[in-house]
């Protein structure tokens, strides 16, 4: 079958990979109808991880069930399903506690926890930027969609990762109705964090970025855009909050944070958060950080060491929540908000493309070219 194959840094192409198929009785086989390019694909695309050449990306997947194993009870052939990027079992110690982001069964390395489709360090699982996808523990991992699945496909596919991940940030930060929230990063996850903070009842949401197209999208949902190439975001937040700082903050950038001139500093956004969130405030970090980053800008960064202003953070009595999102904790409720027309996460989608245009889309998204805010790959477009 065709898939988007990684050939090396900044080099992907559509090639043949072995067909996805039912391998165990609990598997579900899904024909992919929508699969997104994610910001975290770019870390791998740029060669900043140990993702193996010849493998394929794709962890934000949705499609139609074409076959189920003998041990699958709930999911039926023909149904549309969206798959959490976390692959989890449902019965291990972490899954039982709801931490499906740190499943012990689907991650073969005993020193690690957590698995995902087509992802560096997250197990051997093939990605969904392909014609078909094998879904392990199908009854547990498939979130079934209703009759509006195709009509709202660009909304529902966001349930695989970025909408729940965006929701996880204000959730970890402790956002309650009436809060003022500052979000660093207006990529797809930051924009979803802004949507989620608003959905959770935040009175004011400020979003920091420097790309005009992203800031426009933030403004479209009522957030206050802050361009950090023109304005000091910390001072702006303090000015907006009588010098107190925001109640809550969200980190949606990750370890490749850099200033407007391009100088990388993995502590940049965390330090800005510590400075612009009030005493006793909460911070949710969903931007990706890595235990090692061989391509990092200095010796500390290469070893995953991030020099944050811990003294100020402690002094202010702030809390920080970190880590990948346990998608299953939120995806059902967020699905029903979409079904009930309360939220429309597809407002960020800029491009729908067939698999054959993936290489071009990766390049544009990686270069942050204007207007390339979110790409949805639809393998069926090739036949249209
Ligand atoms: Zn993603
Ligand atoms: Zn598990």
UniProtKB/TrEMBL annotation:
Transmembrane annotation, as ranges: none
Natural source organism: Arthrobacter pigmenti
Alphabetic keyword roster: Metal-binding, NAD, Oxidoreductase, Zinc
InterPro entries given in the database record: ADH-like_C, ADH-like_N, ADH_Zn_CS, GroES-like_sf, NAD(P)-bd_dom_sf
Domain (Alcohol dehydrogenase-like C-terminal) ranges: 188-257
Protein name per UniProt: Glutathione-independent formaldehyde dehydrogenase
CDD domains associated with the record: PFDH_like
UniProt keyword Zinc present: yes
EC category name: oxidoreductase
Record's keyword annotation contains Zinc: yes
E.C. number(s) listed in UniProt: 1.2.1.46
Family of the protein in this entry: Belongs to the zinc-containing alcohol dehydrogenase family.
Alcohol dehydrogenase-like N-terminal domain boundaries: 25-137
Entry-linked Pfam families: ADH_N, ADH_zinc_N
UniProt GO molecular function: formaldehyde dehydrogenase (NAD+) activity; zinc ion binding
PROSITE patterns reported for this sequence: ADH_ZINC
Cofactor: Zn(2+)
């Amino acid at each position: 079958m065709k898939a988007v194959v990684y050939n090396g840094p900044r080099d992907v192409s559509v090639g043949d990979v072995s067909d996805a198929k039912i391998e165990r009785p609990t598997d579900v086989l899904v024909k992919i109808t929508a699969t997104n390019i994610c910001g975290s694909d770019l870390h791998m695309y740029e060669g900043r991880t140990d993702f193996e050449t010849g493998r394929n990306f794709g962890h934000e997947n949705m499609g139609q069930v074409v076959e189920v194993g003998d041990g699958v009870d709930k999911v039926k052939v023909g149904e549309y399903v969206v798959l959490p990027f976390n692959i989890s079992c449902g019965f291990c110690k972490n899954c039982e506690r709801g931490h499906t982001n740190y499943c012990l069964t689907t991650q073969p390395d005993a020193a690690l926890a957590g698995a995902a489709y087509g992802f560096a360090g997250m197990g051997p699982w093939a990605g969904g930027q392909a014609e078909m996808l094998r879904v392990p523990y199908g009854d547990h991992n498939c979130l079934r969609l209703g009759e509006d699945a195709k009509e709202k496909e660009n909304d529902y596919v966001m349930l695989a990762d970025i909408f729940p991940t965006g929701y996880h940030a204000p959730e970890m930060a402790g956002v309650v109705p009436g809060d003022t929230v500052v979000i660093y990063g207006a990529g797809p996850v930051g924009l979803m964090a802004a949507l989620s903070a608003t959905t959770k009842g935040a009175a004011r949401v400020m979003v920091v970025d420097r790309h005009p197209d992203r800031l426009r999208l933030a403004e479209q949902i009522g957030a206050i855009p802050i361009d950090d190439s023109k304005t000091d975001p910390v001072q702006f937040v303090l000015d907006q909050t009588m010098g107190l700082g925001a109640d809550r903050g969200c980190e949606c950038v990750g370890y490749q944070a850099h200033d407007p001139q391009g100088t990388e500093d993995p502590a940049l956004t965390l330090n800005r958060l510590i400075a612009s969130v009030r005493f006793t405030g909460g911070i949710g970090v969903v931007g990706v950080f890595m235990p090692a980053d061989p391509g990092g800008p200095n010796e500390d960064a290469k070893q995953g060491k991030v020099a944050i202003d811990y003294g100020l953070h402690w002094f202010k009595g702030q809390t920080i929540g970190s880590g990948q999102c346990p998608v299953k904790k939120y995806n059902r409720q967020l699905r029903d908000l979409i079904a009930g027309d309360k939220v429309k996460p597809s407002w960020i989608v800029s491009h729908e493309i067939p698999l054959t245009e993936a290489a071009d889309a990766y390049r544009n998204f990686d270069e942050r070219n204007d207007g390339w805010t979110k790409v949805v790959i639809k393998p069926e477009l090739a036949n249209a």
